[in-house]
Amino acid sequence: MKKEKICIIGAGLTGLTAGYKLSEKYDVTVLEKESQIGGLAGGFEIEGANIEKVYHHIFKRDEDAIKLANEIGLSDKLKWFKSSVAMYYDNKVYPYSSLKDFMLFKPLPLLSRIRLGISLFILKLDKKWQKYTQTTAEKWLIKYAGKKAYNIVWKPLLIGKFHTFSSKISMGWLWARLHIRLNTRDKQGELLGYFEGGFMQISNNLRDLITRNGGKVETNQMVESITEIKDNKIVVKTKNSTEIYDKVLSTIPSNIFAKLISKNSKIDSKYLVKLNSIDYLGAICLVLSTEQDLSQYYWHNINDLDLPFLALLQHTNLVPKKYYNGKHIYYLGSYLDADSEEYKEGDDKIIRKWLNGLKKVLPDFDIEKVESTKIFKFQNAQHIVDINYSDKIPEYKTPIKNLYLSNFSQIYPEDRGVNYAIKAGNKISNILLKK
Ligand SMILES: Cc1cc2nc3c(=O)[nH]c(=O)nc-3n(C[C@H](O)[C@H](O)[C@H](O)COP(=O)(O)OP(=O)(O)OC[C@H]3O[C@@H](n4cnc5c(N)ncnc54)[C@H](O)[C@@H]3O)c2cc1C
Predict the structure, then answer these.
(1) What is the 95 CA–ligand 1 centroid distance (Å)?
(2) CATH number for the domain formed by residue range(s) 4-41+197-278+394-434
């Protein structure tokens, strides 16, 4: 029997997981606008190895990702490494991995440290996340951790991640981040998962499995419109092609999806307003390689709003540098409005500014010894999870029959991530396989 034709828009991990799962029953075509697959979890070559364009690791609780890795032949590549966290504040790097570190964090008075510790303990124990969605992280943290802890520890991180939206962010989102992480630590600290050979192998293996099942994954195919025609069929138009499908699954950000469907008669303004009510921020990431070993920590929170980046990672303090010709790999990352001047600045200017910032954090850093640098920009990297965000989440089914939506704006209260993209791909496939 001839298989029904399904088009999946977007070759990130949601689209590729769905493509793989659906390719047994459907004739799958995945269309990706970029020249490479992988989306936010895509990779590139540095020092003879494939590495993520933006820093990636997974957590012990990321069951969907671990299960898929086993299923697609990556179980022996997934390695677990001990993480270490530091905080850069007031010109100094402080260890910030353990309860002991929090308690010894001198910039906060002892009473504030105790309050902060108690507030984290509450979040670790409390499983009832719904109640946190009605209040902002700012309000909750000031009330429970205190104003000093908020200003020094939390405010710079929230501003770094959410900019002008920072005071609107739901405590539900922060609850999920902290609750999950605090509960995956054991006495030895936190173990993080990394795929030897890079996360890109997940995308590549999924693509190969889709093709093996008779499907296609096409790059450089920017979808320009999705239109319903007679018999509930759907036309997907790209710059180079126009194809008719039985079903379409979009995994692209909700605001872009809204543009692609806006001309259909079944799409009313209320649905478009809902899709457009979700704001997104872009992300910039600088990756560099050097022989210099500058820090003893993997992850550095940058609690200094004068610096242009929010996070600094010495990737090779998590995974061995032998993967990268013995060189150290560093990531500097920031979230910002994709329409801002800062986002649009040229790569050279960003690199200059950020490397000077790196020298401020780690004074032994010698710019002359940098061997390679690369900037990556993503326009829709993070959705804004404000209070009552649940009301904004779009449904999997759209007003058009046979047109489905599954993207990371539906992930809540958890932070979007590789595990949840895979989970979303599995979930939407189960819905479509039951049809
Ligand atoms: C800075 C940063 C750090 C991160 N770190 C981690 C981490 O440590 N651990 C973790 O688990 N997760 C991390 N993530 C999140 C993780 O990468 C994402 O949640 C996941 O990859 C999202 O997959 P997706 O398929 O839902 O979306 P995407 O990866 O965004 O995929 C959507 C795809 O659709 C394509 N597309 C868009 N418009 C069109 C169009 N018109 N036509 C065709 N194609 C189109 C895009 O190019 C993209 O490939 C990080 C993300 C960022 C930005």
Answers:
(1) 30
(2) 3.50.50.60
